[in-house]
Known about the structure:
single chain, 259 residues, alpha/beta, 3-stranded antiparallel β-sheet
Amino acid sequence: MKAIEVRSLYVGYPPMNMVLDDVSFELDVGELLCVMGPNGAGKTTLLKAILGIIKPLSGEVRVLGMNPAVKPLEVRRLVGYVPQRERIDPTLPVTVRDVVLMGRVPKLSPLRSFSTADITAAREAAKALEVLDLWREPFGHLSGGQQQRVLIARALASDPKILLLDEPLSGVDSHTQSIIVSLLGKLSERGITTVLVTHNVTPFLEVTDKLLILNRRVIAYGPPEDVLERPEVADMYGERYKVITYEGRRIVVCGDVHA
């Protein structure tokens, strides 16, 4: 069984605004996929379709064999999701502990409080993102990079089979970037499948298995070393697109910015 299957997916909004046009791809369990494309390409919409937040006009999505449009609650129990630019009101009196433990809420039965196992899972997730030392700190007092790590820890604490991340490196410092990329490189060992949207694929090239270039339709899909050299990708970005090698590492320059 595939972790994610997307078949001839069409998503749009009335009256005739087609956001995703005949999108198809599949991922095996434990693979990491980077989705890259210009602003307005439908990248966030694709994540929401996988999660079942948006229903397709036609086509099909399967998440571990389930259709999220038909069984959204069952799918969401298996998926950790960190949306783009998520914010928690800094005036709310919540600590890092409170936020990370939110990831365990879907696993609670009615009227049951957090168990020792829940707290252990939350602490392990916080440790993986290097925020355990901030466990009792008010969330609103943290830097942007620290807050992003806490939000990813919350998703990881839910013990997901699939992790969806929308621009996880947007606005973070280099230390946070290193921690996040390193963690993502290890998730496949735990059988966690990851789909992340990014406008800058360079930091992920050493850990990603597949690269999807999206501009409402699939421009290219496959191993990054193949996709980055395809002429249709260069055609989409135009003259600003370059793939260069520096000190043994590939760097993708495409002139794209996150908006």
